Amino acid sequence: MGMNTMNSKKNILLVLTVSIIALCCVMLSGCGDDRDALQRILAEEEIVFGIEPDKLPLSFETGGDPVGLSVDIAKELAYRLDVEPRFVFVSASDARAALDEGEIDLFVNLPSPGQKEEATMQTVDAGIDYRQIMVVPSDSDVSRLYDLKGGTLAIISGSDAAAALDEAEVFKSELEGIIWCEIASEQFEAISSGRADAMLVDEPVYLYIMNGVDSDYEVLGDVISRTRLIIAMNQRDTRLAQRIQSLYDDMESDGTLGRIRSDWIG
User: Fold this and answer.
1) Contact yes or no for 37/234 (Cβ under 8 A)
2) Among 201, 174, 176, 203, which residue's Cα sits nearest to residue 187?
3) Nearest of 37, 42, 36 to residue 84 by alpha carbon
4) For the chain, N or C: smaller number of CB within 10 Å?
5) Domain of 157?
6) What is the number of structural domains in the chain?
7) What is the pTM of this model?
8) Where are the beta strands (DSSP E) in 112-157?
9) Cβ neighbours of 238 (radius 10 Å)
10) Is the same domain home to 182 and 167?
11) What does the alpha-carbon distance between residue 168 and residue 146 come to, in Å, rounded to a whole number?
């Protein structure tokens, strides 16, 4: 009877031991799936970049191929990792979900969603301010936002600048009118012809259009909105983030990032 009891206890201990070992294996497997994204990327020799669609001059399509400032940065990162880049167009609002679901490895030049949201991701500062700026003709009497009270503004429908204007409720309410445009050239036409007193535009767009061109326009010192661009990764991808940060620092120090930025925004 005593022997049977001892055997039963041994069996119970054996079952518990096996269960604990199995649980540890599952946990370790989960941690491994706590994805060594960097190891996978290097093994598969491919990295998947998320970029925004139709985001001049950051990322857009020409002849079916992605081009832009973000694309050139991504290609340089891939080159330094010795892997092939693949690009997926993802809207900024869907970036977090695409990272969490593993559709992309990182998102290049995401407008910062704010400190609270950034805390849920691994990030690298892209070193580019992303402002919504006010542009006027060089001979304009407008020198500050206050001067636009009762004035007319030209703005692209659906742009980040339009979203920023919606946030500036008091300023928007004091405007006489808004001319909605489809592309930046329509904004320039509106202020050149006098139909609008100023245009509100995403700064990279303005810098891209004016790159290498003698400008007849002035940028007001006041801005409607200001944020910065980041490279975003899944929060679990610590090793990948460390490698990207190191590569990005190298690209900054050896002048590569400066040359890429100069090519697109001067």
Assistant:
1) yes
2) 201
3) 42
4) N
5) 130-227
6) 3
7) 0.82
8) 121-137, 152-156
9) 16
10) yes
11) 13
